[in-house]
């Protein structure tokens, strides 16, 4: 199947720099060393979540039969591109309005020729991904679990890996204040482990985390560097928009690993759950739309998914300097929900460093949308 992604809907350059960011900002106390109970020894450090997917997909490829993977129709392209690069045939299974998957329809997608299957827990909510994993494993498929949004859950499960899952991946910088980083758990030993970058690259990455280049740039141009913060160091042109094959060979930065190992996950989880629930109750009565999940689940949430009635409210929120996100570039498929959600489902920040005033600012901005 030829995969084509829908075009972007909104141009980030038209928005002012966000003051309420989707992910937490770094401060030096994030390096504070705690006695860490998490055992990271089974994790492979990767440049990002997409490189972890690429490594898993590469390692688990068949050499003597076609590689056909099932992916959720609702996604960001970074999840799809590694498979395209490796030459997999990609098929999309539809999602329901709560982002769970109809198990009967999913079963129909598990045809004999399908070799692999990727399941996502969207935004840190499990939906019915565990049941889907069981179905896919029973059908003899190679299962990859994408926990890109659920770092805390990913780490918790390292102690009791599910034998039905061949690989699990997650993203570090969606939850922690790092500029990159991913983790990969593989059931089988990895053939080639990603290597740490040179100390010069490490220093550049650290300077970027500390916002040194952004500061110099702002002095030079007297303009706020709106796009610098989105840039990854070492970015190399690739035929893919989001996936850089060179990332497969690099581990995360050493300082990313240090921040990960110094993090207090219990505290992060408690704060994110509390922020989510505070926002969700503040948004319960807004007329602009509704929260996809009225309360946090058992996992630490990444963002709060909110379904707008009017897709143009996305721009209105960005103009108020709130970094709401949206997956606009979903690949074309038969899935009606994904085609609709690319414009209407937004992701509101609920990270653990948000202050009370910021949470209230988000709630007020959402309440004010009614006037349009
Ligand atoms: C579900 C999912 N998987 C994988 C990725 C890729 O993760 P990363 O941005 O760390 O490469 C993303 C990125 O947004 C994602 O949303």
From TrEMBL:
Q: Pfam families under this entry?
A: DegT_DnrJ_EryC1 (PF01041)
What protein family does this chain belong to?
Belongs to the DegT/DnrJ/EryC1 family.
One MF term in the entry's GO annotations:
pyridoxal phosphate binding
Source organism of the structure: Rheinheimera salexigens
Out of the domains of life, which is the source? Bacteria
Task: Supply the name of the protein.
Answer: Aminotransferase DegT
Keywords noted in UniProt: Aminotransferase, Pyridoxal phosphate, Transferase
Key word Transcription present: no
Task: Please give the InterPro entries that the UniProt record associates with this protein.
Answer: DegT/StrS_aminotransferase, PyrdxlP-dep_Trfase, PyrdxlP-dep_Trfase_major, PyrdxlP-dep_Trfase_small
The protein's matches in Gene3D superfamilies, at most eight in alphabetical order, are given as: Aspartate Aminotransferase, domain 1 (3.90.1150.10), Type I PLP-dependent aspartate aminotransferase-like (Major domain) (3.40.640.10)
Q: Does the keyword Chaperone apply?
A: no
Q: Where is the signal peptide?
A: none
- What GO biological process, any one, is recorded here? polysaccharide biosynthetic process
